[in-house]
Amino acid sequence: AHVVQRMERIGKTLVAYGLGDFLGTAFARQPWPGRIGSILVVDVGADLGARGAIAGYRLHPFMRQRVRGHERLVPVEALKGRLRGKVEGRLKAIFSEPAEA
């Protein structure tokens, strides 16, 4: 998927349906909701009793911003003003649970 979508646990499995686009798209002027992306960091157990099990995870959402012909990945918490509010509102609408466990 090219947009951030919800995540859920199904049994012991973590399912991330869409993390958005990490780098630019074919569209030169992508609308703002399509410029939201995320990086999912997962801790996987290595001990004998938990080997291969998800020990924890954290989602790091960002916004792709164009700056003089280049794209920069900006963490949501570094965004300013109205744009930050719009992005946070969009993420809140997508995720009904916290983005880390």
Q: What percentage of residues falls in helices of 4 or more residues?
A: 10-25%
Low-confidence stretches: none
Note the beta-strand portion. 35-45%
Mean pLDDT: 88
Number of helices: 1
Q: Distance N terminus to C terminus?
A: 23 Å
Q: Tell me about the biggest sheet?
A: 3 strands, antiparallel
Number of domains: 1
Principal-axis shape equals elongated
Oligomer: single chain
The strands making up the biggest β-sheet line up spatially as 3-4-5
Walk me through this protein's architecture.
There is one protein chain. By secondary structure, this protein is mainly β. It has one domain (7-94). It is built from one helix and five strands. The strands form two sheets. Strands 3-4-5 form a three-stranded antiparallel sheet, with no helix packed on it. The protein has a two-stranded antiparallel sheet with strand order 1-2. Strand 1 and strand 2 form a beta hairpin. The chain is elongated. The two termini are 23 Å apart. The model has no long low-confidence stretch (mean pLDDT 88).
